[in-house]
Amino acid sequence: MWGEDDWYGYIYPKNLVKFDPKKIIVGVLRQEPSFVPDADGEYYFVGGGTAGGYGLHVRQEYADDEEDLLYYASILNSRVLEYYHKHISFIFNSKYYSYGQTFLEPHPLTVPEEELKEDIISIAESIKERNDIISELAYKMSDVQNYLPEYEQNRSILDIASSIELDDDDYRQDPIRTDEKMDVETAEHVYQLVMKRGHYIDFDSEDVRDFVYQLLTAQNRRLTRMEILNMSVPSKEGIQRLMSEHKDNIDRIEGLERESMAEQAELDEIILEDVYGLSQEDKQIIDEYLDVW
Predict the structure, then answer these.
(1) The whole model's pTM is what?
(2) CA–CA separation, 135 vs 290, rounded Å?
(3) Between 20 and 30 A from 15 (CA), which of 108, 191, 231, 246?
(4) Angle formed by the axes of helices 280-292 and 79-88, nearest 10°
């Protein structure tokens, strides 16, 4: 490599090759188990000590495909192994536990009869599919700008505001807030976006005001007066449809989370009773302990 122009591009593989095979990933420091199968060897992560992530390679004879990984991840995420783990692991502030190699190796994993294993995988797949939808919706909801490609942006904030009182050249993010007042002449509500004391934009719709608030705060930088007024947005009707979709997504996520929790409870029952053969008394001990820890 000596004398080569791109010498800096050569490096020995270190442990990177160990990330390529299928594996199960877990956060090293967690309040609860969070084992996730990576069947395609797609994810790389950093870790060490009590930070980052940790990966588990399952031997070929035990995990031949993605379904097998999902089975073991389900067992590792179960309440019975959470109970076990919290009795052998170090505990840190705020009830965080170490999920490093020392505390993972003793975990008592078991492989049940094929029919029972298939039942567990079926429920786990259903939970995973639902959680994938939740993740997609949560990402979309994390920034109102994620909705915009689906809507025609043929207006500006200047077009959709009912009145504007902005005299400064630019505005910081921190003071921006929403407010509401009553028009003394018309007795109608006026929905305000307050940029700072005495500087505001009025709207005749709460949804439109809330959309503009989220849009401006998502910029995360100082904005000039002209940037604010000329920012491209959908029409009022388009914004109301967008905000309605946003609220529907909130309700949809809540519904999906309830369904996932119900299936997770069903999965825990199967693992507790049918995989590990625990009694009602055993389950009560586990539930009481995990309610505290």
Answers:
(1) 0.79
(2) 26
(3) 108
(4) 60
Answer yes or no: do 171 and 214 share one domain: yes
What domain range is 227 assigned to? 155-233
Q: Are residues 135 and 94 in the same domain?
A: no
d(CA 73, CA 37): 6
pLDDT for the residue numbered 43: 86
What confidence score (pLDDT) does residue 291 get? 92
pLDDT digits (tens, 9 = 90+) for 239-261: 999 999 999 999 999 999 999 99
174 Cβ neighbours under 8 A, 6+ residues apart: none
Segment 92-142, tens digit of pLDDT: 988 999 998 889 999 999 888 899 999 999 999 999 999 999 999 999 999
Q: How confident is the model at residue 164 (pLDDT cuts 50, 70, 90)?
A: very high
> Is the separation of the CB atoms in 23 and 56 below 8 Å?
yes
Same domain, 81 and 105: yes
CA distance 35 to 115: 23
260 assigned to some structural domain: yes
- Burial code of 222-258, b = ≥16 C-beta within 10 A, e = fewer? ebebeebbebebbbbebbbbbbeebeebeeebeebee
Closest to 19 (Cα-Cα) out of 52, 55, 59: 55
